[in-house]
C-alpha cells in the first residue's frame, strides 16, 4: 500500500508525538503520519520517572547537558523554557506539579496522563499513527523522501527522524536513527550508555550489595574534581547506582575515581570528635561497632576494611589514634575506581547523535539534507536526571513541528 503525506515522522515517542501535534496546531492542513515500530506509541515515555514521567525541570539550562549540541541548545530553551512547555501541556489538558527539587510531574503522577494528552491531541488533529511498522529503507527522492516499511510505502515532502537511541532496548531502543541519518549524509557520534550505574573495581562491593546510603559523590580525574552530586547512593554487586551516580555517569571515564562522602553534614573536626567519643562509649565492644548509630552494619564494616582494619576481634579500645583518623578520612572519601559504564539495558538515555554543526537549532532542520528534521535523542545531546532529557525531546519536537 502506498501513502502520500506532507511529512512523515519516524518514531512515536515523546519527541515524535509532540512534533506531530505542533505541526498540526501550526498548520491544520498538513497531512502528517507517525511511523512507530512498537505495537503502540509512547512505550518508553510510560517508563520515565519510575512511571511518573518527570517531564521538565524548573532550572532548564545548557549547563545540565553534554554533547556537541550543548553549545546550541540555549537557543532552543530561549524559545521553549519551562513555563512555555508547561503551558503547552496545559493547553493539551495536562496539569502538572513541582517537587522540592524543581522536577515537574503530571498532577496525576502517572506517565500515562502525559501520553494520553499527546495521543488524544493526535487523534483530534487527524494525525495518522502507524504502529508495528518496521522500516526497511529510507530514500531521498529529489525534494522529497520515500519510506518503505515491511507492509507499506510512504511518500513525503518532509521527513522527521525522532526514533530515539539504543537506551532501554526492552522498550524498543535501537540504533536505527544512526543508520537512517548516516545514510542521509550525516556525521553521527556513536551512541553510548548514559544515566546508568557505573561499574567500579572493588573487593568490598559484594559485602554491601543492596545497601543504600545518602551522601555526596564526587568524580575525580587526575586529582581534579570533575563533578559532585548529592543524593541516595546504591551499592550493587559490581557497580554504584542511584540518581547522583547516574549524573556522574555522563562524565565518567575509565580509571576515574568516585569518592563518596558518607557524612557530608559533618565537618572533619566534628567527625573525629564523634569517632573518639564512640571509641570511649563502645570500649569493650569489637571494632566493627565503632560506627554503631552512624552507618548500616555491613557498610560500616566495609569502611573499616578499606582502612585496613580487618580484625574485628579487637576491641574499640584497641583502635589507635591513627586508626580513628583513617576511618574518619574514609567516611569522607570512600573511594572506588571506575571500570566502565553499565550497558544500554540499564541506561535511561544515550550520549551520541547527529553533531551540532549539521543541525539548524532555530528549526531543527538538517544542514546536509533538505527537508530533513532531527529531534530528541537523535541529536548529539544528553541531559542529567531531573526532566532535562524529556524537556529537550518535547522542545525540539515542537520546534521541528512548527517548521514543517
In words, what does this structure look like?
By secondary structure, the chain is an alpha+beta fold. Helices cover 28% and strands 28% of the residues. It contains eleven helices and 22 strands. The strands form six sheets. Strands 1, 2, 7, 8, 9, 10 and 21 form a seven-stranded mixed β-sheet that branches. The protein has a six-stranded antiparallel beta barrel with strand order 12-15-14-13-16-17. The longest helix has 15 residues, at 388-402. The chain is elongated and about 85 Å long. The two termini are 25 Å apart. The model has no long low-confidence stretch (mean pLDDT 95).
So what's the overall shape? elongated
Estimated helix fraction:
25-40%
Gyration radius over CA: 25 Å
First-to-last CA distance: 25 Å
How is this structure best summarized?
The chain is built from 11 helices and 22 strands.
Which helices and strands occur, and which strands form pairs?
Elements: E1 2-10, H1 14-26, E2 32-36, E3 56-57, E4 65-66, H2 73-79, H3 82-92, E5 96-98, E6 103-106, H4 111-124, E7 128-131, E8 135-141, E9 144-149, E10 153-161, H5 176-183, E11 188-194, E12 198-201, H6 205-208, E13 212-221, E14 224-235, E15 239-241, H7 243-249, E16 257-261, H8 268-281, H9 297-306, H10 321-332, E17 334-341, E18 349-354, E19 359-360, E20 365-366, E21 372-374, E22 382-383, H11 388-402
Parallel strand pairs: 1-2, 1-10, 2-7, 10-21
Antiparallel strand pairs: 3-6, 4-22, 5-6, 8-9, 9-10, 11-18, 12-15, 12-17, 13-14, 13-16, 14-15, 16-17, 19-20
Helix pairs in contact: 1-4, 1-11, 8-10
Amino acid at each position: 500500500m502506498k501513502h502520500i503525506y506532507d511529512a512523515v515522522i519516524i518514531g512515536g515517542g515523546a519527541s515524535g508525538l509532540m512534533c506531530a501535534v505542533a505541526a498540526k496546531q501550526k498548520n491544520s492542513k498538513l497531512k502528517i503520519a507517525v511511523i512507530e515500530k512498537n505495537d503502540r506509541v509512547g512505550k518508553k515515555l510510560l517508563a520515565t520517572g519510575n512511571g511518573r514521567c518527570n517531564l521538565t525541570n524548573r532550572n532548564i539550562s545548557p549547563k545540565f547537558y553534554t554533547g556537541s549540541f550543548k553549545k546550541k541548545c540555549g537557543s532552543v530553551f530561549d524559545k521553549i523554557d519551562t513555563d512555555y512547555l508547561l503551558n503547552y501541556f496545559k493547553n493539551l489538558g495536562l496539569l502538572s506539579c513541582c517537587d522540592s527539587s524543581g522536577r515537574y510531574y503530571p498532577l496525576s503522577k502517572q506517565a500515562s496522563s502525559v501520553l494520553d494528552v499527546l495521543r488524544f491531541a493526535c487523534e483530534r488533529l487527524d494525525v495518522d499513527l502507524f504502529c508495528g511498522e518496521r522500516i526497511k529503507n529510507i530514500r531521498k527522492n529529489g525534494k522529497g523522501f520515500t519510506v518503505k516499511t515491511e507492509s507499506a510505502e510512504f511518500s513525503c515532502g518532509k521527513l522527521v527522524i525522532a526514533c530515539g537511541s539504543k537506551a532501554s532496548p526492552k522498550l524498543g531502543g535501537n540504533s536505527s536513527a544512526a543508520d537512517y541519518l548516516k545514510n542521509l549524509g550525516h556525521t553521527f557520534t556513536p551512541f553510548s550508555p548514559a544515566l546508568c550505574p557505573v561499574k567500579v573495581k572493588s573487593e568490598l562491593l559484594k559485602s554491601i550489595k543492596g545497601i543504600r546510603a545518602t551522601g555526596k559523590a564526587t568524580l575525580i580525574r587526575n586529582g581534579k574534581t570533575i563533578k559532585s552530586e548529592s543524593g541516595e547512593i546504591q551499592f550493587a554487586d559490581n557497580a554504584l547506582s542511584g540518581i547522583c551516580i547516574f549524573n556522574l555517569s555522563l562524565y565518567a571515564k575509565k580509571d576515574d575515581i568516585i569518592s563518596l562522602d558518607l557524612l557530608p553534614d559533618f565537618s572533619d573536626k566534628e567527625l573525629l570528635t564523634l569517632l573518639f567519643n564512640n571509641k570511649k562509649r563502645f570500649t569493650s565492644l569489637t571494632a566493627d561497632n565503632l560506627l554503631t548509630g552512624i552507618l548500616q552494619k555491613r557498610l560500616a564494616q566495609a569502611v573499616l576494611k578499606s582502612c585496613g582494619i580487618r580484625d574485628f576481634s579487637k576491641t574499640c579500645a584497641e583502635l589507635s589514634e591513627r586508626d580513628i583518623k583513617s576511618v574518619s578520612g574514609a567516611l569522607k572519601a570512600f573511594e572506588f575506581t571506575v571500570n566502565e559504564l553499565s550497558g544500554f539495558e540499564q541506561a535511561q538515555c544515550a550520549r551520541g547523535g547527529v553533531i551540532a554543526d549539521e543541525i539548524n537549532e532555530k528549526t531543527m532542520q538538517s544542514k546536509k539534507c533538505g527537508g530533513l528534521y532531527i529531534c530528541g535523542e537523535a541529536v548529539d545531546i544528553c541531559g542529567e536526571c531531573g526532566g532535562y532529557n524529556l524537556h529537550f525531546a518535547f522542545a525540539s519536537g515542537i520546534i521541528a513541528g512548527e517548521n514543517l
